Amino acid sequence: MNIEELAARLDEAVRDATAIxxxxxxxxxxxxxxxxxxxxxxxxxxxxxxxxVGVKLGFTSxxxxxxxxxxxxxxxQLTAGTEVTDGASVDLATMVHPxxxxxxxxxxxxxxxxxxxxxxxxxxxxxxxxxIIDSRYRDFRFSLEDVVADNTSAARYVLGEWLPxxxxxxxxxxxxxxxxxxxxxxEHGSTSAILGDALLAVAAAQRMxxxxxxxxxxxxVILAGAATAAVAMEPGVLVEATVEGLGGxxxxxxxxxx
Length: 258
Ligand code: OOG
Ligand code: MG
Hints:
By secondary structure, this protein is an alpha+beta fold.
């Protein structure tokens, strides 16, 4: 199977919400090939009119790396069609085995080029965020290359209210994070779990995007990576993340008609 065929197989798994075997079971992939599969899969979506609006980092926290047994930081891409409005409902039947995790999002005011030696100067806004991840692989198990090819399990994301970065920057590095289901806390953490300081996610995104040929134009969203382990979604629940000093963001899980 070539890169395009592997990308098409994953793309079909997303659209059918059906798990598949890990690609590496059949054909070992290098990390560069895995990113090529990711890019080919995103090209299919762009071709269907779903543009790229940003990037997401994965495994930036110890909690996530430990949960998945994979430790290198990875980058995936966000498309417009995968955004869910804050407070809206998401249909679990459109995914394989979705999990949710609390994050922080940045929005660029100007392009972040690979040469910029002050990446934080390009950030205009910051917001609390939720990411719904959904591995297209059976049992939510994968190698580093498999998860990169699968666009780092990206499925949906929800952004809270954007706040001016200049005024809120001091709150981002080490803020308490809570993930709750119907008001019951499920995970607790701190944004300091993200690379030791969540602000470092911007430079990490710049480095990874440059390495794998992803542009970061003005307006791009950067998801910093989860501050805690991910929790399996359950039907009929109000999922809420709160980030101290930045506020909250929520999504409702619908069981089939949501
Ligand atoms: C890969 C995605 C990891 C994060 O925030 O660390 C990620 C996965 O765990 O399936 O999005
Ligand atoms: Mg994530």
